[in-house]
UniProtKB/TrEMBL annotation:
UniProt-recorded Gene Ontology molecular function terms: 4 iron, 4 sulfur cluster binding; metal ion binding; quinolinate synthetase A activity
NCBIfam families assigned: nadA, PRK09375.1-2, PRK09375.1-4
The organism of origin for this protein: Cystobacter fuscus
Protein name per UniProt: Quinolinate synthase
Gene of this entry: nadA
Protein keywords: 4Fe-4S, Cytoplasm, Iron, Iron-sulfur, Metal-binding, Pyridine nucleotide biosynthesis, Transferase
Chain residues that bind iminosuccinate: H25, S42, Y113, V114, N115, S130, H199, P200, E201, T216
Length: 310
């Protein structure tokens, strides 16, 4: 691609030409967040997808998010800059294995985290996100036992918050499971005035050091409202862009993972780039498609989530 191409301007023109809307997750690179029509977490993006009147939804996130948009908009085109942008949490819960797991607990009410495939969603009673998981589980009838999948760490956090016992699928996110408790404690010593904010997908050993635990949107709202000036942020580093935009006078320190990196980035989220976004809007591909029967089956638990989130 020629160096003289103004990608941002071209993307805006393509958006007008095709009546397209660009939805981007907080974990996308900052350049993509800046050209998006809507930036949010999984719940907010699902709500935005459900309300859109655009002919084309360009989803800058990972595969399961684009699937969710397609399920909620079966007649609209959904484009994803890179179809290889998957999710370790979703991949660690294969539909066939989940079906066998579910059959061992036939009377359980199935609550599935949005970080799952369309096939797993279709086998669920309701979907949740980290923003609404506690609210959703609290609405499950008290006489029903619950099966929660696929993130065990979020599941344990929800159990503590709700007092509900749940059978947990043993899944986890490669981004959030690698945060180092030892390195986090070292950071706290170096920054004694900093508050620690963490995503509930993190391991319990890390969460016990947090001053606040919440979804990506919850973390953003908290640091913007807090009178504190320094924060150690224990989630994917992409959210720091919105934090810095909202509070440029505050210090945001990315918590280091248990490796040689200084911050933690999702390798799948980072597959999407501004150039790939431009190319997919220009060429109308790659387009995400799903079998109609699967879309219909997954739509019911997704709609229930949106209703229970009101």
């Amino acid at each position: 691609m020629g160096a003289d191409v103004d990608l941002e301007r071209e993307i805006q023109e393509l958006k007008r030409r095709h009546n397209a809307v660009i939805l981007a997750h907080y974990y996308q690179e900052s350049e993509i967040q800046d050209v998006a029509d809507f930036v949010g977490d999984s719940l907010a993006l699902a709500q935005a997808a459900a309300k859109t009147q655009a002919d084309v939804i360009v989803f800058c996130g990972v595969h399961f998010m684009a699937e969710t948009a397609k399920i909620l908009n079966p007649t609209r085109r959904v484009l994803l800059p890179d179809l290889k942008a998957g999710c370790s949490l979703s991949d660690r819960c294969p539909p066939a294995a989940f079906r066998a797991f579910k059959e061992k607990h036939p009377e359980h009410f199935v609550v599935s985290y949005v970080n799952s495939s369309a096939a797993v969603k279709a086998m669920s009673d309701v979907i949740c996100t980290s923003s609404n998981a506690v609210k959703i589980v609290n609405q499950v009838p008290r006489d029903r036992q619950i099966l929660f999948a696929p993130d065990q760490h979020l599941g344990r956090y929800v159990m503590k918050q709700t007092g509900r016992d749940m059978v947990l699928w043993p899944g986890s996110c490669i981004v959030h499971e690698i945060f180092s408790e030892k390195r986090l404690v070292q950071l706290k010593v170096q920054h004694p005035d900093a508050e620690v904010v963490a995503h509930p997908e993190c391991e319990e050993a890390v969460l016990r050091h947090a001053d606040f635990i919440g979804s990506t949107k919850g973390l953003l709202d908290y640091v913007l409202k807090s009178p504190k000036r320094e924060f150690i942020v224990v989630t994917e580093a992409g959210i720091l862009h919105q934090m810095k935009r909202g509070a440029p006078d505050k210090l945001f320190i990315p918590a280091p993972p248990d490796n040689d990196c200084s911050c933690n980035e999702c390798p799948y989220m980072r597959l999407n780039t501004l150039e790939k976004l431009y190319q997919c809007m220009r060429d109308g591909t790659p387009e995400l498609t799903l079998p109609a029967e699967l879309q219909a089956a997954a739509l019911t638990p997704l709609r229930r989530m949106l209703e229970w989130s009101l």
